[in-house]
Amino acid sequence: MQQFVHCQQRRTADNNIIFWKRFVAELFAPNGKKSFCFSLYPRPKTRANLSLGSMKKCDICKKNPVNGYEACFDVLPRLLKVKYESGLLEERLFTDIPSEFRDPSGYIVLVCKKARRESLFDKFRVVHKGSIRIVFSPYIKICSWEFCVTHHEVFISRSHLVPNVNQIGDAISKFQNFAANNNVTAEEFQESSNKLVAVTQELAKKLEVPMLDDYSGFAKSYVRCLQLAEVGNLMKGVIDFSIRNKIGPIESLEKFPKKPRIGDHGEDQLQQQQQHQNGNHDLNNGGRNNGHTPGIQIGSSRNGTLATSSTVQIHNSVDSRVQNSVNGEENAQIQPPNSLP
């Protein structure tokens, strides 16, 4: 966790996407994801649901379905770039002592019941409080980073507001003097009133922080990027479903199965099993020898569907992707912070 935060502070001055691609490749597993859950927030009156449904369950608060966002491995570099383009200067993470255990699959799980994330901007900072749950692969790569947020607060810099507060004080004093003086003309009184109203409106405008999403406390551009990522994930699932079943796009949308996703690292575990099966023989033969149906591939958590493939071409594609992922993880352990530019 310390390296995750420290490496972000060492980002390049131009916020280059290449840096973020290297950052994600070094710290996240190929099917890694980062998610934010707001299910413990009071439900907004004007927004019944924040997400499109790609995040089915929160492993911290156990809410199902979840009000929140989820970003997969492919989207994370762009998401990090957008986060710092929105005016974010620095991000800090404070946690209590995490509890650590291994799940039945051998994955390392860290749970921080109390966590505080501070996002520092030029004239204000945003504090999100909640719990964090991180799942690491056997190669110490992040498979899942979940932040279940209970609430957030916005703190505006005092120096940003002091000039307006002083102007309001001066305007009120002048207004009171005019009110007590019978010799003041109507024009002078009106001018003083208008000045007081203008200064008050300017102060109110500074308190609004329009660049932030009112509900989540994230920058609006960051939230839009998360929403677009969810749309892409869902549309990819619909396209795959359409190709598999040889039906049109409209019919695919109508028949697309709304099934729950697999667990956090189900796909990663499946990839490792397939890698062992493909050590010395063909994928299809290996499937028959082990008593498994050769055409079944459990869908990834990126699109939240259960997929069934039946061609050798798809098997070969999965096999090569698994081989590259496992080889990459064996040769690319987490580098020290100075390995990033």
TrEMBL record:
Pfam families: LIM_bind. Residues 256-341 are annotated as: Disordered. InterPro entries: LIM-bd/SEUSS. It comes from the Eukaryota. Residues 269-287 have a biased composition (Low complexity). Residues 298-341 have a biased composition (Polar residues). Residues 256-268 have a biased composition (Basic and acidic residues). This is Uncharacterized protein. It comes from Arachis hypogaea (Peanut). The lineage of its organism: Eukaryota, Viridiplantae, Streptophyta, Embryophyta, Tracheophyta.
